[in-house]
Design goal:
single chain; 70 residues; alpha+beta
Length: 70
């Protein structure tokens, strides 16, 4: 196990240049999906499941984030 002092600080930004911390303030909980934009098999299915989950829950305090690994 690693202590939090060992882990590097990572700054995530969206396509508009906003920091993830700034965006995530609007949500009490969120799902994060790490995937590839060029993934043609599993990624679209996983994103579809997240969309269905979002539609079922319909909670403005629940955020869904896709982090592109390409």
């Amino acid at each position: 196990l690693y202590s939090k002092n060992y882990l590097p600080t990572v700054l995530l930004k969206n396509t508009e240049g906003k920091n993830f911390e700034e965006i995530s303030e609007n949500y009490t909980q969120f799902f994060i999906y790490f995937g590839y934009m060029k993934c043609s098999s599993l990624c679209p299915i996983s994103l579809g499941v997240m969309k269905q989950l979002s539609d079922m829950i319909q909670d403005d305090q629940l955020g869904f984030f896709f982090i592109n690994l390409d």
